[in-house]
Design a protein that fits this description.
Elements lengths: L5 E6 L7 H15 L5 E6 L5 H5 L7 E5 L16 H6 L2 E6 L2 H5 L4 H14 L2 E6 L9 H13 L11 E5 L15 H19 L1 H5 L3 E4 L7 H7 L4 E4 L6 H12 L2
Parallel strand pairs: 1-2, 1-8, 2-3, 3-4, 4-5, 5-6, 6-7, 7-8
Helix pairs in contact: 1-10, 6-7, 7-9
The structure holds 2-phosphoglycolic acid.
Length: 256
């Protein structure tokens, strides 16, 4: 990923329900994504579609990612999927610490193990942090700091080049552009996250880590978040399931 490229990551979650539909959605997105030179598009489908979608595009403007990963590369773990296995079928990215995985029981310690092994295996890690609500005492900032610091425990500086941080407040997920973070709030979070990364790794390394936004990113709010919120891209949920909407996000972002 070139440092100057914006990163637009599609998080398809549990959708669609057939390989046929997944291929159709991918080809409809590919028409635009393969032409947008200022963007790195990443499609994160359910695990079972990764291999097939990966075969449908051979350039670098679109990469495939996974939505989760296990913290070991081998062993007695029925039903889990290792970073090496993901890499072998063409996944280049993996989302770790998504609030929906955390809601199903994933702890900060689990997230930390996943981040470390995925980076060691050579995957790019899209680490998600986000508070469920904001409070006037700003305790949510303490919560976010803990989430970020614990996820990065034991992550060496030389692995930072494969790290992307997603600020994804839970209160903004699955709604509409009007309910998302405001550009001002995003700008504050951008500074806040950079400050924590700088404390951990120094200014130079911290400055190279992309910070993207997730939570009702839609065609209606990406422009203001890019221009006033300073984001390096978006993690897009529901709007990535409609090729037209997702392609619109790509086109708007590509115009900057
Ligand atoms: P949303 O989902 O765009 O539907 O809010 C984003 C996400 O959960 O990654």
């Amino acid at each position: 990923m070139s440092k100057n490229k914006k990163l637009i990551i599609a998080n398809w979650k549990l959708n669609p329900n057939s390989l046929k539909e997944a291929k159709k959605l991918f080809s409809d997105i590919k028409k635009t994504a393969s032409k947008t030179s200022k963007i790195q598009t990443v499609i994160c489908p359910p695990f079972v579609y990764i291999n097939e979608l990966n075969k449908m595009y051979s350039g670098h403007r679109i990469e495939i990612g996974a939505q989760n990963v296990f913290w070991e590369n081998k062993g007695k773990y029925t039903g889990e999927i290792s970073p090496s296995a993901l890499k072998s079928v063409g996944a280049k990215y993996v989302i770790v610490g998504h609030s929906e995985a955390r809601a199903l029981g994933e702890s900060n310690a689990d997230v930390n193990k996943k981040v470390n092994i995925a980076l060691k295996t050579g995957l790019k890690v899209v680490l998600c942090i986000g508070e469920s609500k904001r409070d006037l005492q700003a305790l949510y900032l303490k919560f976010l700091k803990e989430e970020l610091e614990s996820a990065l425990s034991d992550v060496p500086k030389n692995h930072l080049k494969n790290l992307i941080i997603t600020y994804e407040p839970i209160w903004a997920i699955g709604k509409t552009a009007g309910d998302a973070v405001s550009p001002h709030q995003m700008y504050e979070m951008y500074i806040f996250i950079k400050k924590i990364l700088t404390e951990l790794y120094g200014k130079l390394s911290a400055s190279n880590v992309p910070i993207i936004y997730g939570g009702s990113a839609e065609p209606g709010n990406v422009e203001e978040l890019l221009t006033q919120g300073d984001v390096d891209g978006f993690l897009v949920g529901h709007a990535s399931l409609e090729a037209q909407q997702f392609n619109e996000i790509l086109k708007i972002t590509n115009s900057f």
